[in-house]
Amino acid sequence: MLNPADDAFVQKLAEAVPDLWLGAPEPRYLEEPRGRWKGQAGVLAKPATTAQVSALMAFCHAARVGVVPYGGGTGLVGGQVCSDGPAPVLVSLEKMTALRAMDAQSLVIEAGATLQTVQDHAASAGRRFPLTLASQGSAQIGGCLATNAGGVNVLRYGNARALCLGLEVVLADGTIWHGLKRLAKDNTGYDLRDLVIGAEGSLGLITAASLRLYEPPAVEGTAVFAVTSPQAAVELLGLAQARFAGCVSAFELISGWGLGFLRDVGPEVHLPFAQDPDWSVLIDLGLPAGMEAEAAFADLYEAAGDRVTDAVVAQSAAQAAQLWQMRESIPLANRRIGAISSHDIAVPVAAIPDFIAEATALLNAMGDFRLNCFGHVGDGNLHFNVFPAEGRSRSDYDAPPVMEAVHKLVVERFDGSISAEHGIGRLKVGELARTADPAKLAMMQAVKTALDPRGILNPGVILPAPQKP
Amino acid sequence: MLNPADDAFVQKLAEAVPDLWLGAPEPRYLEEPRGRWKGQAGVLAKPATTAQVSALMAFCHAARVGVVPYGGGTGLVGGQVCSDGPAPVLVSLEKMTALRAMDAQSLVIEAGATLQTVQDHAASAGRRFPLTLASQGSAQIGGCLATNAGGVNVLRYGNARALCLGLEVVLADGTIWHGLKRLAKDNTGYDLRDLVIGAEGSLGLITAASLRLYEPPAVEGTAVFAVTSPQAAVELLGLAQARFAGCVSAFELISGWGLGFLRDVGPEVHLPFAQDPDWSVLIDLGLPAGMEAEAAFADLYEAAGDRVTDAVVAQSAAQAAQLWQMRESIPLANRRIGAISSHDIAVPVAAIPDFIAEATALLNAMGDFRLNCFGHVGDGNLHFNVFPAEGRSRSDYDAPPVMEAVHKLVVERFDGSISAEHGIGRLKVGELARTADPAKLAMMQAVKTALDPRGILNPGVILPAPQKP
C-alpha cells in the first residue's frame, strides 16, 4: 500500500529538492477530456531538469508515495487522473521543452514539448515528424510516447513507437536510464525502449526522446471518395496500395452518422458532398517527384469502378485542410452528442466489413441507439461509438453492458484489440483483466514488479494498484 | 547454477513427454558459421507441436536444466552454440513449419519455417514479406525474430521487429503466451512482443508468429552508382529520399576493398565497372504505377552532379539479380580472407563519413591491416571488418584490442551501437557489459530475472549465465 503525499511529505520533499517547483494544482490538472473522473493530488511538481525528476522520484520511492505523470491532459482513458487511493504527486514536465539536438534524420527533445512544437522544429529544418493528432497543440511528446499514440498517419509511418529512436527515462527509484540513441538499428539487448513506450508512465518517466524525421513527400494530395460500403472501402485501400505502395499516407473511414452529427450539433465545417454518403474515405497520398496527385486519384477512381459513387479531389492546400477539418471535427461533434460508450477497437483490416455489420446488428438487438463508426481503416482501427437515440440522454442507458458486449465481439469473434490507440489507462483495467490472455497478464505483472517493486509509478494504470499487504 | 542434461535427465524427459523426438545432435547443430566455438548439448529435442515445447520447457524448468534454441544456425554471434557450462537441451523447431493462416495483410506461421518459405507463401498470394537476408534459405523465421534480423530492406520496411504483428511464445516454466494477434495497432498493455523479439531466446521460445505482408511495389528498379566518397553516398541518399520518399527500398554501400576481395578470392561474380570504384552504392527503388525506374535513376544521377562518377542501371530482372549477387557475395569473400575482427556497428546516418575516416585512421595507426567497410548506409549500419595485411594470417594478430578500439570509437565518439543487427549472442556479452549504460544493464537483468527466474533460457546469451550461488 502506498502513502499519501500529505503536507508533511510535501514539506520534506521541498527541503530535499530545494529548486523543484511545487504547488497546488489548478483544476485543469485534475480533469480529463470526457469528464468521467475527477483527479486528486497531494501536490503538483514541475521539475525543470532531468536531475530534478531523478531526485523527486528517489524521494517518492523512499517514501512509498505514488507519482502520476500529467502531459497535455488529452488522454481519453484516465491515465492522467488518479481519482482514488492515497493522494499522489502529480508531475508535469511542462518546463522541460528544450530541443537538445537536431540533424536531417532525427531530433532530441525534452518530454514536455507539445507535439505541435516537435512538428514545427522538424518543419524548420525542411523535415517532417509525421505523428498527427487532433490534440497536437496540447498533447506533449512525452505523453504521446507513454501512450504510444496513433493518429491518422500510422498507415504510412507507424505509431509513436515506430517514430522513436531512443529515450531518457527516470526509473522508479530515481535512476536515470540514458538511452537517447539516434540509431535506426541497435540490437544490443532487450528492447527496453518499446517496453517503456506504451507503458503509460507505469514503468518509468520519459524525460526526453530522440525522434525520427522524414523527408516530406515531393508531391502531396488529398481527396474524399464516397464508397458504397465498408467492403468497398477495404477494397479501395487494396487498389490504392497496389498502385501507390508506401505512398498512401492516410486512409480514413467516415460514416454518414458522423456527417449527420456534424450537421446536427457542429462544429460548422464544409461538407464535400451535397448529400452525405453513408460511407466515405478521406485519402492522403504522398508521391514521388514526377507524379501528379490529381492524376493518381483519377487513376484510382477509374480502377475502383462501382465501388465508388463520387469523389472530391482537393485543388489547393486550403481545400485539403477543409477536408481534414471535417474529419478532425467528428470527435468534437461526438462529445457534444455525448457517447454512452466509446470503443477504440482494432481487427484485421480484412475483417472490418464483418465487424461493422456484426457490431451494428448486436447494438440494434440491444436497444435504441445511434452509432458513429469512423477511423483508421488502413490500420484496422475503428472508433465504434454508441450514442443515445434522438431525444434521449446517456443517463437513460446502462453503459457497462454496451462496452462489454462490443469488447466480447472484438476479442472472441475477431481476436481484436479493445484499445487500438488510446491505451488502457484507468478506464479499461477491468476490461483488460477480463479479456487478456492470462500469460500476458502474468508477464506484465512480473515486469511491473521487477521495474517498480513498490508500485509507485502511475498506480492503477494498466494493472490494478498495489493493495494493502 | 544449472544442472546438466545428463543421461538420467534425458531418460526421465523421454518418459515425461513420450512423443517428443529426442536424439544425439549431428555435428552441424554444434557449429556456427565463423567456426569460433564448438557447441555442446546433452540431447537434441525436435518438438512437433507447441504443446510439446510447453511440456519440454516445464520439465527443464523443474529440473533447472538449460535450454538452447537452435534455428537455422546462421547467427554470427554464437547465440545458438553453448560451449561451456552444464550441457543444455538443444531445441530445434524444424518440425514446426505449418502455415496456420494467411490473408492479404498477414500470415501466421510456425517458427521453424525458413525465411525463404515465408517469402514463398507471401509470393503465392501476390504479396511480399520484405525481410531479406543472404542466409534466408537456412535462417528460420523464429531465429530471425529472436535476433531481430535486419538485412537490406530495413530502410523501407524496418527490421524483423517491425514486420511482426504477434507471437506465440513458450515461457521458461512452460506457460504458453497466446499472442498471435494480427493487428497493426494494439495498445493493450506492455509491448511484450517487442521484448521477446531480439531477446535471442533468453526470455521465451517463439513457436509461431503473425507477420505483416505488403503489396509489392508496382514498378521496381536496381542500379549501382559509383560515388566519390562516403560523404557523397550520404548526400545521394538525401537526394533520393527528397525525390522518392518512402520508395527507396535499399541503399547499400560497397567499398573498393570489398570488390578487390571478390576479385582476389571469389566467388566469381559480374562486377559492373571495368575499374572498381573506391565507393559505390547499390540502390533499389520500388515506385508507384505510372513511374519508370530508369527515368527515376536518370533524374537522381542528374541531381547528384559530381558526387557520382558513373552508374549502371539494371535493364532486366536478371541484371538486377547480378548486381545483388555482387553485394551478397561480399560476406563470403570476407570469410575466405578471414577477418581478425568484424564490427556490426551503427552510427547516426549523418556521421557515417566521419566514422569511416576516423575508424580507418585508428586502424592504420594500430598496425598493418586490410579493411572492408560495407553495408546498410541508409540505416547508419556498417560492417566494418578488419583483415590481415596481404600475405599475413589472422593468427599473427591479437583480435580483442582491435574490437575494443573500434567499439570504443563507436560508443564514446558517436553514441553508436556495437551490434546493429547481429545481436549480442555469447560473442559480445563482455563488450555489452563494458560499454552499455549501467541503468540499461540493470533493467535488462531485472526483466530477465522476472521472466526466467532460474535462468534456464539460452544461458549466457546477452547477460552472463547464472553462477553458483
Automatic annotation (TrEMBL), chains A, B:
Single Gene Ontology BP annotation: respiratory electron transport chain
Keywords annotated in UniProt: FAD, Flavoprotein
Keyword Flavoprotein assigned: yes
Keyword Ribosomal protein on entry: no
Gene3D superfamilies from the UniProt entry: 3.30.465.10, 3.30.70.2190, 3.30.70.2740, Uridine Diphospho-n-acetylenolpyruvylglucosamine Reductase, domain 2, Vanillyl-alcohol Oxidase, Chain A, domain 4
Any GO MF annotation of the entry: catalytic activity
Cofactor(s) named in the record: FAD
Chain ranges of the FAD-binding PCMH-type domain: 37-216
InterPro entries: FAD-bd_oxidored_4_C, FAD-bd_PCMH, FAD-bd_PCMH-like_sf, FAD-bd_PCMH_sub1, FAD-bd_PCMH_sub2, FAD-linked_Oxase-like_C, FAD-oxidored/transferase_4, Oxid_FAD_bind_N
Sequence similarity: Belongs to the FAD-binding oxidoreductase/transferase type 4 family.
Protein name, entry field: FAD/FMN-containing dehydrogenase
